[in-house]
Amino acid sequence: MITHTFKLPKRFDMAAALTLARQFLSVPPSDPVEIDFAGVTFTQPFSMLYFCSQLRRLINERPQSSVMFSHYEHLGYLAHMGFFKACGIEFGKDPGQAAGSPDYVPLTRLTIRDLEDEAADQYEDPRETIERRSGKLATILARAEDGDLHETLTYALREIFRNVFEHSNADAIWYAAQCWSGLNLVELAIFDEGDGIAASLARNPHLSIASDQEALHLAILPGISGVAFKGARQKRNDAWANSGYGLFMTSQLCQRGSSFVIASGKALLEIKEGKTMDQEIDYPGTAIRLRFKTDRMEDLSQSLEGLRKMGAEIAGTISTEANLSASMSSRMLMLKEKN
After folding, report:
1. What is the dihedral of CA 118, 47, 170, 314, to 10 degrees?
2. What is the full DSSP assignment across 246-273?
3. How does the average pLDDT of the chain come out, rounded?
4. 3-state SS, residue 333
């Protein structure tokens, strides 16, 4: 029996996390696995959350074999962020235990029960709790406590969080954020281990979805939803109605300010500076990465009105289509961007 050792690289970024998870998940079920943390010196919210989620998956799927960890005791930052406890290693703080700051949010697991308890403690509707938490995360992303960009990000994040709690069948949502002032860069990652994008959108009979990749391309369009569509029964006058603009606004803002990533099922879509890149992965659930260059915040604020108009025009066109395919919607999005 061979022990398969996987060493985290010095720079443990998204690409490294995707590669490493793919490798250790392909190990024969009966073989032991060792994860060696000795070399890592830099990591990011997305890579931490993705690695932890896939490592928990590895452990759960192979109870008959051992998974070992080595050379991690010196990694104070990861211990403080709750990374090791999220991986199942009894070292460092629990997820969400660190206080956080204007520059970071530790790895945090928010369950539906946690959400309901917090709402009860604050004497508020759980959706207001989501709004409040979204506002705090928007403050880190926008590098401001108010303003048009902050308000837009709060709204978009609220939609993303609500989609998880109301439609994904996940029992919890994971998130983390970090600002690197020296790099003029801020990143927020949001994960769940629920049904995934394709399964959620498949509830909409007007959508034609052939693959996880097509589902991701559809999901970033305004007004696209698995539960809110023509003919669906919805509550009237609901101020919290989910309109399906969250992923559209965040993807558009991120690609103008840095990059946007969404992964679900067998596909990952990255949008950066107007270019889309697809790759195959294997992630049960949905993972999102929002990135902004902090020195471009003023430009982003000036883009908001144009994005809202663009979103309304695309959503209006979509509403007239009997059935919508990913290729049709992608052409529509590119056309609006050029105009």
Report:
1. 100
2. HHHHHHHHHHHHEEEEEEEEEEEEEEET
3. 87
4. helix
pLDDT tens, residue by residue, 62-109: 776 788 999 999 999 999 999 999 998 999 999 999 999 999 999 999
Q: Which fold has domain 1-98?
A: Transcription Regulator spoIIAA (3.30.750)
| 260 and 271 Cβ atoms separated by less than 8 Å | yes
Every domain range in the chain assigned CATH 3.30.565.10: 99-338
Domain with CATH 3.30.750 in the chain: 1-98
- Cα(91)–Cα(85) distance, rounded to whole angstroms? 6
12 phi/psi in degrees, rounded to 5: -95, 80
pLDDT in tens, 213-252: 999 988 888 887 644 445 444 554 454 455 678 888 899 9
Residue bearing the bigger pLDDT, 217 or 339: 217
Helix (H, G, I), strand (E, B), or coil: what is residue 87? Answer: helix
Whether residue 292 contacts residue 149, with contact meaning beta carbons closer than 8 Å, is answered with no
Query: Taking the chain, what is the end-to-end CA distance rounded to the nearest angstrom?
Result: 61
Q: What architecture is the 99-338 domain classified under in CATH?
A: 2-Layer Sandwich (3.30)
For position 228, what pLDDT does the model report?
Answer: 46
The answer for residues whose C-beta is within 8 angstroms of residue 133's C-beta and 6 or more apart is 110, 161
Dihedral of the alpha carbons of 125, 178, 308, 256, in degrees to the nearest 10: -170
Helices (H), the chain: 14-25, 45-61, 76-80, 83-87, 112-121, 126-142, 148-167, 197-201, 212-219, 246-257, 297-318, 326-338
